[in-house]
Each structure stands twice: as C-alpha cells, then as structure tokens.
Amino acid sequence: MQFLKYTVIRLALFFVVFLPLAFLLRWPIYTSGLIALVIAFAVSYLFFNKLRLAANADVQKMFAANGPKKSKRQLSDEEAEDRFLDGDK
User: Fold this and answer.
1) What is the distance between the alpha carbons of residues 87 and 17, in angstroms, rounded to a whole number?
2) Residue 5 — pLDDT band, cuts 50, 70, 90?
3) How far apart are CA 77 and CA 71, in angstroms?
4) End-to-end distance of the chain based on CA atoms, in angstroms?
5) Helix, strand or coil for residue 1?
6) Can you give the pTM of this predicted structure?
7) Is there a contact between 70 and 31 (Cβ–Cβ < 8 Å)?
C-alpha cells in the first residue's frame, strides 16, 4: 500500500511541475518533462524518505513472497559450497 501512495505522490509532483512549464510557459515538452522529472525525484527523495523506505520494503516483500523456493538439497549444496569457499581463505 505504501508503494502505491509513494507512486501517486511522485506522479502528482511531476505533473504539478510539468503542466505549468509545458502549457503556461510554452516550454518544449521534452524540456518540461526532464525538469519535472528531476524536481519530482529530488523533492520525493529529500522530503518523503520514510515513505520511500516503506515503499521499498513493500516491494521487497512482494518479490520475496513470489521468489523461487529452494529445496532442501539446493540449500545443503549451497551450504557445502560456502564452507568449501570459506575454507580456501
């Protein structure tokens, strides 16, 4: 849910900057878009850090839940490889 909230805020910031630049000041679309993108990124990174971290945690949970499941044999093989590689040091 935090991911959706963070995405909506970033899109709103983008359009708040983009629309006046593109339609009121008649700047080129690409220039307006680039400037709006940079400003939306900077503002969201500086002022919405907690929300960004919560959104990141939501995405991590989503991918961890859908990730490939490893069998006991695969886990034991990885553990043996780790012991072998750590023994060489």
Assistant:
1) 57
2) very high
3) 10
4) 45
5) coil
6) 0.69
7) no
Which of left, alpha, beta for 26 (phi over 0: left; psi -120 to 50: alpha)? left
Q: What is the 3-state secondary structure (H, E, C) of 17-82?
A: HHHHHHHHCCCCHHHHHHHHHHHHHHHHHHHCHHHHHHHHHHHHHHHHHHCCCCCHHHHHHHHHHH
Q: How far is CA 34 from CA 59, 71, 73, 81, in A?
A: 26, 47, 50, 47
Write down the pLDDT at residue 67: 65
What are the tokens at 81?
A: 């490889």
Look up residue 89 and give its two tokens.
């040091």
The pLDDT value given to residue 63: 83
Give residue-wise pLDDT tens across range 29-85: 999 999 999 999 999 999 999 999 999 999 988 887 776 777 888 889 989 998 898
